[in-house]
């Protein structure tokens, strides 16, 4: 199969995939952004395409000609354990066939409960829940395929997203609309514990950097993440920016809230430990290796509030 030596194909057009596609184009790469619908706002330098990577044939069609494939596909929480392994197998076989490098957006789930231990790339994978075990199994399969010489793959792990375009996060649609309008703001668990949040622009720049550096292959990296603050302190930073106290509702137990319904809540319950113990991710290895620093959290909050202001001001359709 013919390969374009500078074509980066991004699979998945959620907040991470969309931000990554824009970042790759900004860096001068040719970019194809693939999603099931192929639709979305135009992005300078990015060609959108329709594709289904749930089958090998679909994955091969989606990545044709790519030098680097970025796997940012995700599915609803209640479908992940069944769907994500199928997607992985299709994408792995496709990149093995074409010879493209593979960059995978990953989560902290494989670590499981850490009891406050700072998470580094050397932290053991001790997940006990179904989603954490599934993610750990996927990651072992990626790295085994690399060690066997079948594919060239690298994994970039992120903490909870925050930033423009991010809705389904604990710092997303349950927080910023209420902060801007005086409505309720939802927080989970113990808000006096430190909790890492990765800016979506740092997710994008980190994955783009991994895509540009073949020497990064064969291991897990923690994407650049600002120093952890307590969620209470993050809320105070938001209060300073909106000029009013937040009407915070703290859920000590998970229940439906904001954009999250009962189906989501039932599926997310096994991960609620992330809000009852410190969740601190260290990204110093990535920062030192590639000479980058994460975006300061305050700057990320400024950009996020601006995005939500625009969203709230837009006419409803």
Automatic annotation (TrEMBL):
Protein name per its UniProtKB record: NAD-dependent epimerase/dehydratase family protein
Ranges where the NAD-dependent epimerase/dehydratase domain occurs:
12-217
Instruction: List the top taxonomic levels of the source.
Output: Bacteria, Bacillati, Actinomycetota, Actinomycetes, Kitasatosporales
Q: Which InterPro entries match?
A: Epimerase_deHydtase (IPR001509), NAD(P)-bd_dom_sf (IPR036291), NAD(P)-dependent_oxidoreduct (IPR051783)
